[in-house]
Specification:
mainly alpha
């Protein structure tokens, strides 16, 4: 049985975690917290997806000999993410945005542990 690629596995896990976080946050804290968690999770998922897309494009450009300027798009991603998070922090509950944003990190850790990727979980 062939294994699914890592990025789709992580995205699927992150989406599942985001649904749980938004539902529990809405039930326990309120709709404002749930909306903040959703916004933070969507921002982090978009950032993760953009990183994967840009890394693929960057490696293709380098293979074709376009190394100068190829990393410019990747360098723009971080300031865009910082501005997006700043806007979210201004509009939503900060803790909710942070909790929602952690779903991608949690998904990466879960995937590493599930698939016994020792380099990612810190094993020697």
């Amino acid at each position: 049985m062939a294994q699914m690629a890592t990025i789709p596995r992580v995205v699927r896990t992150a989406l599942g975690l985001l649904v749980v976080v938004v539902a529990l946050g809405t039930l326990w804290v309120g709709t404002d917290f749930g909306a903040a968690a959703l916004a933070g999770g969507v921002a982090m998922l978009a950032s993760f997806g953009a990183s994967a897309f840009l890394a693929r494009r960057l490696s293709a450009a380098v293979e074709q000999g376009f190394s100068s300027g190829a990393s410019g798009l990747m360098m723009i991603k971080l300031p865009v993410l910082v501005i997006a998070l700043w806007v979210l922090f201004e509009r939503f509950d900060v803790l909710g945005v942070v909790v929602g944003g952690t779903v991608v990190v949690a998904a990466v850790i879960i995937d590493a542990v599930r698939h016994r990727d020792q380099a990612l979980v810190g094993a020697a």
